[in-house]
Each structure stands twice: as C-alpha cells, then as structure tokens.
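We keep the chain:
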Amino acid sequence: MKTLKEKSVAGRTGIETPKNETGAKSSLPENILRGKLELPENSIINVARHFHNLAKRNYSVLDGIYPLGSCTMKYNPTISEKLCSNPLFTNTHPLQNAGEVQGSLEIMHTLQNWLGEICCMDAFTLSPAAGAHGELTGLMIIKKSQGDGRCEIIVPDSSHGTNPASAAMLGFDVKQIDSNPQGLVDLKKLDDVLSEKTAGLMLTNPNTLGLFEEDILEIADRVHSAGGLLYYDGANLNAIVGKACPGEMGFDVVHVNLHKTFATPHGGGGPGSGPVGVKEKLAKYLPAPIILENNGKYSLETPSESIGRVKAFTGNFGVLLRAYCYIKMLGGTGLSKASDHAVLNARYACEKLKKSYDLPFTKPCMHEFVLSARKQKHENGVKALNIGKRMLDYGIHAPTIYFPLIVEEALMIEPTETESKESLDNFIEVMEKIAQESKNNPELVLNAPQNTPVKKLDDVKAVKEPKLK
C-alpha cells in the first residue's frame, strides 16, 4: 500500500473518493463526482503558527480592557465552555422526544424561573436569538395585546437605535421625545405625546447615558394611565441586578441580553440570546415553545394566544447553558456584587477623566458614562474618532464613539465589572495622555493609528470602495 507521501503530486496529496460502506461505487452521475480530493501537505507546527499569528492581529478580552459602552459584560468563564461541550448536550437533537431530553428541559425551565425572579416577571420565553430579536418579540406581544387602535410607540432620543427600528418593523408609528437637561426622560414632553393611540413606551434603565431614570415610577404611572404598556430594554440590566428589578419599576415586558449580563460570548455578530419576560396578563401571548413542569416532568408547550414561533426550536441552547452556569455559580449575592463592581468601576473612571474631557451630564453614572471630545474638536480639530484610533497605538481597544447621538463627539465608556484598579488606572492614564497630545501635538492624534497592522484609513474611500473580502 502506497503512503500518502508516495501518492503526493507537487507537494499535494491526492486521495481517491471513498466508496460507500458496501464497497460499491457511488450511484451519483460521474459528472458531479469530485474525483480526487487534494489536500495540502503541511506540518502541524506551521499550521499552528499560522493561526497564532492571525490571532495576534486581533484584540480580545485576554489582551486588555474592552471599554465598549452599551455592550456590557465581557466575562466569559471557561467553566461554562466545558459545560457546553459535554456530549450529553452536544449529542442531543432539537427534534428528540421531550422524554429523552428531560435534563436539558429542566435547565431551561430553571433558567426561565431565575430570570423571572431577577426581573420580577411572571413568565419567560427563551426563544429570541438576540437583544433586538427580543425587542421585536416583546413588541409583537404588545401589538397583539393592545389591538390595532393603539399604533404608537414612544422612545427617548437617547434610546438604542434598535428600539425605533424594531417598532417601525411592526408598523408602529414611532414618537421620539427629547431628554431633559439632566439626560433623563422629560415628563412634560412625555405627557405631550401620550394619547389613546399609545401602545407603549420603550425604555432602558439605567439609560444609554448611564443614568438611572429616577422618575421611573411616575413614568410608569403616566403610561399606564394612558392605557399604554412599558417595555424594558435589558441592555443595561447588569448595573442593577440584585438592586432593583424592572417588574417593580412598573415594566410589563422585558428582554434580557444573556450575551451581555449573564456571561456568554458577545461580539463578532454572535452568538446571542434575548429572552423575553412578561407580567401574568401577557403570558398567554408568549411565543412557542415555553417549558412547563408538571409532577417533575418537563414539556414544551404553546401558550393559549401565542404570537407563534420566533425562532427554530428553543433558542440558542449553548448560550442558555452558559447563562445557567453563571447564575448558578454566583447566586444572588454574587450577581449583586457584580453590579456593585460595574458601577464602582464606571464612577471611578468617570471621576478621573472628567478633568480631561467634557462631561455633558453630571448626575452620578451607573455602569457606564458618556464623555465628549467637543473641546478637543473645537480647539485642535481632534475628534472622538481620532481619539479612539490613537488608543489603538497604546494597545487598548477604543470605546464606543458617536453614541448616543444626543452627545456631540461622544465617547461612551463602560469599564465592566471585571477590570481591576490597575487596569482602570492604565486606561485612565492613556486617555489623559491622549488629551494632552490632542492639545500639544494634535497631528500625532489626527494621523493615528501609527503602529497597528492596518494604519490610518481613508474613511471616505473606505465607504466608496469597501473591501468586503
């Protein structure tokens, strides 16, 4: 028998297409058969070095702080990955009989209950595949429960862009209200748009500026008095877990970003998960399936007036497992401490950096804060974009920029709950140094980045001639 080396031609290996298990040739027409499968020959070490070198060109949470505002948790414990790779989970199939996957159903049922306890909601669905998908699902529930007469959704001007987008996708008319000078919901402007057409108000609390809506009970009362429902965007939930819950604030519907608040990988487009919780009066509208328990047996059921399926099977099960593991590991006390650290880290960094950058809203922040580079822009032409790119030269990932839109030259910073004081001090030092460079040597910042694999890009050309491959 010839070795693969003897069969190779010009450094490549030709492997005959195998016959089927009976030894017979394939019954497929010859013209669509592959014939020979040619694989390149290479050593294991060369392959390993190739992918290692590619990885070094990227930035990850293992390299340093990831201060992306509005993107929250960056903690992905390895133990969760071990759990998810267990063959007892990976070798099951979504179409298996419920009696054969009782363990998986029990985990999902337990997670539903935990999320309900954390958010003070009476029922949960785990199906939605992302935060925006959760928004859409929640709004579908609001739409079905409210009827066609209530066709307007109210959103603050500081809301996530997906809020008005999700509402518009379902045919709602979006009514935007401006924030007051403190960066919070303006109660008078809220009154101006509330009417018999109001289906609901979408709100994040803390809001996108990192500020807690202190009038939330009054807001909820006014929306409910007008016949509307209150929707909670859970993007910033990690600031208040164990401290306050949406249900007690008056919210009727909530989506939770498991890939943000409950320690599952987030970024690069996925994976995600956006479970939706509701008060009891809305439980009958939840999408199918939900997991119910009866005498120790778990089953997949469809609520009586369900909006139908919003995703195949039961959602992103691997993400659900990671969230289950994280909540189980920390417990109520640990989750509350995580919120403590998220807020403490943000307030520490904000207090330090407000001397070097403008702070548009001075109310104490929660888990994130928004600075402005308008001073640097007006004095020396240095924009938030330039500051973000200069940070790359110091080996630090840039924060979110130009969001929320109501802040000129916004730098939206969230240190997250897992960063140490040493890490924060290094981040603060770099930000302060860039502020000095913007003043004393603006060209250095304007031409950043200087030492990354990809140097400063022509932004206009990048838009007109994008390289998508």
About this structure: Residues 109 and 291 are 6 Å apart (CA to CA).
